Amino acid sequence: MRYAMTSAAVFIVGILVGVLSGKWAHAQGAPYVTREVIETRLNNVPGQELLVFESTWQPGFRLPLHVHPNGHEITYVIEGEQTFYIEGVGTKLVKAGEAIYTPPNTPHYGSNLTDKPTKTVVIRLKDIDKPIMVEVKPAAFETK
User: Fold this and answer.
1) Quick one: pLDDT at residue 51?
2) The predicted structure's pLDDT at residue 57
3) What is the pTM of this model?
4) Shortest CA distance to 40 belongs to which of 25, 29, 26, 52?
5) Per-residue model confidence as pLDDT tens digits over 96-108
6) What is the pLDDT of residues 24-63, one digit of tens each?
7) DSSP designation for 7
8) 75 and 133 in contact (C-beta within 8 Å)?
9) Are the C-beta atoms of residues 105 and 68 closer than 8 Å to each other?
10) Are strands 66-67 and 32-41 parallel, antiparallel or unpaired?
C-alpha cells in the first residue's frame, strides 16, 4: 500500500512539473516575433514602398547575416538594448531611445545579447519588386 501511494505521489508530482514547466516555456514566447505595422507605396517616389515593423527579441536571439536589396533600414530600439553588426561599420550597441541606419545591400545582423527581451521598430524604404531581405554567407572575418 505504501509503495502504491509513493508511486502515485511521484507520478502526480511529475505531471505537475511537466504542466507547469510547459506553461513557463510557452510564457517565454518565440525567440523573435515581428508584426508589420504598415506597408504603403510611395506615390511620389515611383517604384518605392515604405514598411514599418515592430519586433520583440528574446534573450540570445540573433538574426542571420542578411542584406536588404536596394533597401534602406532604420532600427529604433524602444526597450532594452541590442547589438548590431554592419559590414564596414562594425559592431554597435544600440540602447532604448537610440537608432541605427543600415545602407542598402550591406550585410548585417542584429542580436539580443542581454538577459531580457528587447523591442524595436524597424522602418524600411525599398524597391517594390525586391524582397525584404536575403540571407548571405558570412564573411571569413565575421565571428559573432
Assistant:
1) 98
2) 98
3) 0.76
4) 52
5) 999 999 999 999 9
6) 444 567 999 999 999 999 999 999 999 999 999 999 999 9
7) H
8) no
9) yes
10) unpaired
DSSP structure class, residue 100: E
* Set of cell numbers at residue 118: 528587447
pLDDT number for residue 138: 78
Nearest to 126 by CA among 102, 110, 107, 94: 102
- How far is residue 113's CA from residue 57's CA, in Å, rounded to a whole number? 10
- What phi and psi values does residue 130 have, to the nearest 5 degrees? -105, 150
Residue with cell 508511486: 7
* Identity of residue 16: L
Distance CA 110, CA 44 (A): 31
Within 10 angstroms of residue 97's Cβ, the number of other Cβ atoms is 10
Longest dimension (CA), the chain: 82
| The three three-digit cell numbers of residue 141, written as one number | 572575418
Upper half-sphere CA count for residue 104 (Cβ side, 13 Å): 9
Give strand pairing partners of 122.
53, 75
User: Which cell goes with 70?
Assistant: 536596394
Alpha helices in 1-144 (DSSP H): 2-27
Pick from 117, 75, 108: which is nearest to 94 by CA? 75
